[in-house]
Design brief:
250 residues; alpha/beta; OB fold (Dihydrolipoamide Acetyltransferase, E2P); five-stranded parallel β-sheet; 17 strands; elongated
Length: 250
């Protein structure tokens, strides 16, 4: 598979080249670029199978490059030095990413996913708008998440979510307008994304919005009552951390 590396730091390009050579020899680097203009020209000229794209390129972003294309017919593996909370947007959008400094195991995993997608002709490009929306939400500090549905994706305000319930590899979101829908994501993924918005996992099966807790009843673990009347048990091992989080809201 032919690849182009796009990063404004030469030492990052060098490191990725060495890692690919040592651990992923099936990836052939045909070019490296340090700005959006040359990257756009080289992608059109060389038609790579995949690009390794830095999120921040000088005063622009990798998304500024992607917007230049009428059609994205190559795979994308993002590279970012962003803090953990921002990386969650990449994970939730089901696109591959590498967190700098790049770890060899992470690179191997990303390349394996890439090979599976290409062999199955399951392109990542349809997820670009989903990823872009998540990225913009984080930049604007907008408390919304983007979740995939069978029809595309839907923007949901975190303040519209009362709680999330696990069903193995699926999660059902319960909204304050009495609507609910099931998403093919684990509860752990929702916990990771929503924890920054005052959500807490009170037991193995539930993540609740702390803003909608009406009362807490003591017991071995106790249970919470939400504003819609639903009662959910708090596991004994999560009780102390839950009460600490709850007290921080006051």
């Amino acid at each position: 598979m032919n690849a182009i590396i796009i990063d404004d730091e030469q030492h990052c390009i060098n490191r990725l080249e060495h890692l690919l050579k040592d651990y992923c020899p099936e990836i052939k680097i045909v070019e490296s670029c340090q700005d959006i203009g040359s990257a756009f020209n080289k992608i059109n000229e060389l038609k790579p199978d995949v690009i390794f794209l830095d999120v921040q390129i000088h005063d622009a972003t990798g998304f500024d490059l992607l917007r230049k294309f009428d059609k994205i017919d190559f795979e994308i593996i993002f590279m970012t030095a962003f803090e953990h909370y921002a990386v969650q947007a990449f994970r939730f959008s089901a696109l591959d990413y590498l967190l700098k400094p790049i770890d060899s195991d992470d690179l191997i995993s990303a390349v394996e996913k890439l090979k599976t997608k290409i062999q199955g002709q399951n392109s990542s490009t349809y997820n670009f708008e989903l990823l872009l929306q998540n990225f913009n939400n984080l930049k604007q500090k907008n408390k919304k998440i983007t979740v995939p549905t069978i029809y595309g994706f839907e923007m949901i305000s975190t303040q519209d979510i009362l709680y999330c319930k696990s069903d193995v590899n699926y999660t059902t979101l319960f909204l304050k307008d009495n609507k609910n829908f099931t998403v093919a994501r684990t509860l752990k993924e929702f916990e990771s994304v929503l924890s920054q918005y005052d959500f807490f996992r009170i037991n193995n099966s539930y993540v609740v919005n702390l803003d909608y807790i009406k009362s807490y009843n003591k017991g071995k673990g106790g249970f919470v009552k939400l504003e819609n009347g639903v009662e959910i048990e708090v596991s004994s091992r999560r009780k102390d951390d839950f009460l600490i989080r709850l007290n921080k809201l006051t």
